[in-house]
Amino acid sequence: MYLIELDQECLLHLFSYLDKDSRRSLSLTCVRLRQVFLDPQLWTLLHFRSPCELRRDNFILGSSLRYLAVCWHSSRVKVCNIEDWMKTTFQRDLCRKHESLVSDFLERVCHMCPNLVSLTLSGCGHITDHNVINVLQSCRRLRSLSLENCARMTDSVLQAMVNFGNSLTEVRVDFCRNVTQEGLQEVRDKRPEVHLSALHSADMIPDSKPEEKTQIRRALQKFLIFS
Prior knowledge:
6 strands; single chain; alpha/beta; 6-stranded parallel β-sheet; 42% helix
């Protein structure tokens, strides 16, 4: 028996053991295997190790997707998490190459993956409250949301979890420096059934605007002059 003579269920099972690149390579060998690759049932779980992987054509987004993770563990994450007004020209150029990749991808998820139940975003320093709020509004079956080291997350996301995350049972906002104790407490008060983790988040120094930094610096200079 040839491989292509197996039924769809068997081929899907075989494909499930392959990584994304191997699935795509095999799908290019014949029309039958291409049909298996394009079957949404094959793509219930997706894991990406960097934003650049989102550019590739080795995966399919669809209504069968349940578990999604974009986890970027790289030294470049530190650059992404620097406040924009503090970045050098080189750092801005570095970020410009990928800063919209995850945001644009999440927009596609909102339109194509309504049955998502778990979302993990780690080291995604350029995503905003708006991106995550859209996911919460579009994927109403979401049960687990993990945001780790996503510097632009604020209490607005926590408020959206209360308002739209009716199915949520687990939320992590670890190392998100612009989340406050007040925002976390509101989630605990209004959604006590949700297991909430916020490791170091509210204890970190939040972002500040350039003018605020200037005022602090001038006040310190005056203090030093007259002391």
